[in-house]
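User: Predict structure, ligand S-adenosylmethionine.
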Amino acid sequence: MIYQYILDFIDNGLIRKGKVLDLGCGHGQAAILLSSLEFNVEAVDKNDPAIPLVKGIQFTKTDIRDFKIKANHYDFIHARNVLHFLHKDEIKQMVARMYRGLKKGGVMYFNVSGDKDGWVEKSKAVVTFLSEKELVDYIEYEFKMPPYNKVTRLGYGNTTSGVNKYTHTITYTVIK
Ligand SMILES: C[S@@+](CC[C@H](N)C(=O)[O-])C[C@H]1O[C@@H](n2cnc3c(N)ncnc32)[C@H](O)[C@@H]1O
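Assistant: Predicted complex:
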């Protein structure tokens, strides 16, 4: 189950039941999971989900760079496998806006592609491949805090487009 980490966050008491924002929600599997667990979910994607999202999820079809994230509003902001479609400076702005969008104690979860990732060659749409040092430096210096958790995955990996043989993603969990 791709989203086991979300269940673990809930089980471990890391995220409170409340307002969730899912940026680049794709087909909405994470949004649907959270909604079924009684979170109040907003989801954003520039494309329509292939299947209609369940009742109760507030979906906005727009570019995440144009979506106004309300300040101090969310308990959990989720942006999985989407930030690598933005340019490096846009990722930084996005992460800063996500952080502002969190309530105190809120959690954000996002990942970027590392520079060993197979998508470097496979996709023109994926534009940013950061070295680990770049993003760790950014989070630590910009926010003056280390990530709560940082996972580097190198090897086979699941994406919504199937198995990616040379996955190199760096996933960050940050608590405000
Ligand atoms: C690889 S899918 C990831 C979907 C989902 N978050 C997941 O973890 O399975 C990437 C999604 O990001 C969306 N996307 C890419 N760039 C975007 C942008 N600038 N604004 C909004 N959505 C974007 C795509 O339409 C696609 O649905």
